[in-house]
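Please, why this fold?
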Amino acid sequence: MSGESKLTHTSALVLKVVSGGCRYGFDIMEKTGLPSGTVYPILRRLEQAGLIQSNWESGDAQELQRPQRRYYRLTRSGEKSLLKATQRYPLLDNLTAERERR
Protein backbone atom coordinates (compact mmCIF):
# COMPACT_ATOMS: atom_id res chain seq x y z
CA MET A 1 0.00 0.00 0.00
CA SER A 2 2.09 2.89 -1.20
CA GLY A 3 1.05 6.51 -1.18
CA GLU A 4 0.00 6.07 -4.80
CA SER A 5 -2.07 2.93 -4.34
CA LYS A 6 -5.72 3.18 -3.45
CA LEU A 7 -6.86 2.40 0.07
CA THR A 8 -9.75 0.05 0.73
CA HIS A 9 -12.81 1.61 2.28
CA THR A 10 -12.11 0.05 5.69
CA SER A 11 -8.46 1.14 5.62
CA ALA A 12 -9.58 4.66 4.74
CA LEU A 13 -12.10 4.55 7.59
CA VAL A 14 -9.36 3.57 10.05
CA LEU A 15 -7.14 6.40 8.76
CA LYS A 16 -10.05 8.80 9.12
CA VAL A 17 -10.73 7.96 12.76
CA VAL A 18 -7.03 8.05 13.63
CA SER A 19 -6.87 11.52 12.10
CA GLY A 20 -9.91 12.47 14.17
CA GLY A 21 -8.26 11.68 17.48
CA CYS A 22 -8.70 7.95 18.02
CA ARG A 23 -5.22 6.91 18.99
CA TYR A 24 -5.25 3.28 20.20
CA GLY A 25 -6.78 0.01 19.00
CA PHE A 26 -9.84 -0.29 21.24
CA ASP A 27 -10.73 3.34 20.65
CA ILE A 28 -10.49 2.78 16.89
CA MET A 29 -12.65 -0.37 17.13
CA GLU A 30 -15.27 1.49 19.15
CA LYS A 31 -15.38 4.41 16.72
CA THR A 32 -15.51 2.32 13.53
CA GLY A 33 -17.57 -0.62 14.78
CA LEU A 34 -14.97 -2.96 13.28
CA PRO A 35 -13.74 -6.04 15.18
CA SER A 36 -10.17 -6.42 16.43
CA GLY A 37 -9.49 -9.08 13.78
CA THR A 38 -10.05 -6.38 11.17
CA VAL A 39 -8.59 -3.30 12.87
CA TYR A 40 -5.21 -4.63 14.00
CA PRO A 41 -4.22 -6.14 10.63
CA ILE A 42 -5.22 -2.84 8.96
CA LEU A 43 -3.11 -0.89 11.46
CA ARG A 44 -0.12 -3.14 10.75
CA ARG A 45 -0.51 -2.69 6.98
CA LEU A 46 -0.92 1.07 7.29
CA GLU A 47 2.19 1.27 9.44
CA GLN A 48 4.21 -0.89 7.03
CA ALA A 49 3.09 1.41 4.22
CA GLY A 50 4.31 4.45 6.15
CA LEU A 51 0.84 5.99 6.48
CA ILE A 52 0.78 5.82 10.28
CA GLN A 53 3.37 5.61 13.04
CA SER A 54 2.96 4.05 16.44
CA ASN A 55 4.57 4.02 19.84
CA TRP A 56 3.90 2.31 23.14
CA GLU A 57 2.65 4.46 26.00
CA SER A 58 4.80 5.07 29.03
CA GLY A 59 4.36 3.36 32.41
CA ASP A 60 0.91 4.82 33.14
CA ALA A 61 -0.85 1.59 32.17
CA GLN A 62 0.61 -0.38 35.05
CA GLU A 63 -0.48 2.27 37.53
CA LEU A 64 -3.99 2.16 36.06
CA GLN A 65 -3.98 -1.66 36.13
CA ARG A 66 -4.62 -2.14 32.43
CA PRO A 67 -2.65 -3.38 29.44
CA GLN A 68 -0.18 -0.99 27.83
CA ARG A 69 -1.60 0.86 24.82
CA ARG A 70 0.00 1.36 21.45
CA TYR A 71 -0.79 4.84 20.14
CA TYR A 72 -1.12 5.61 16.43
CA ARG A 73 -0.85 8.84 14.46
CA LEU A 74 -0.92 9.77 10.79
CA THR A 75 2.26 10.58 8.91
CA ARG A 76 2.37 13.18 6.14
CA SER A 77 1.94 10.39 3.62
CA GLY A 78 -1.04 9.19 5.62
CA GLU A 79 -2.60 12.65 5.51
CA LYS A 80 -2.16 12.79 1.73
CA SER A 81 -3.59 9.29 1.30
CA LEU A 82 -6.55 10.17 3.53
CA LEU A 83 -7.28 13.24 1.42
CA LYS A 84 -7.30 11.12 -1.74
CA ALA A 85 -9.42 8.45 -0.05
CA THR A 86 -11.94 11.05 1.12
CA GLN A 87 -12.30 12.20 -2.46
CA ARG A 88 -12.69 8.60 -3.62
CA TYR A 89 -15.14 7.68 -0.83
CA PRO A 90 -17.29 10.76 -0.23
CA LEU A 91 -19.45 8.90 2.29
CA LEU A 92 -16.42 8.50 4.55
CA ASP A 93 -17.12 11.85 6.19
CA ASN A 94 -20.75 10.88 6.72
CA LEU A 95 -19.87 7.54 8.31
CA THR A 96 -17.55 9.07 10.86
CA ALA A 97 -19.96 11.93 11.59
CA GLU A 98 -22.79 9.42 12.12
CA ARG A 99 -20.70 7.47 14.63
CA GLU A 100 -19.93 10.69 16.54
CA ARG A 101 -23.65 11.37 17.04
CA ARG A 102 -24.24 8.01 18.71
About this structure: Residues 9-90 form a domain with the Arc Repressor Mutant, subunit A fold (CATH 1.10.10.10). The longest helix spans residues 36-48. The first strand starts at residue 52 and ends at 56.
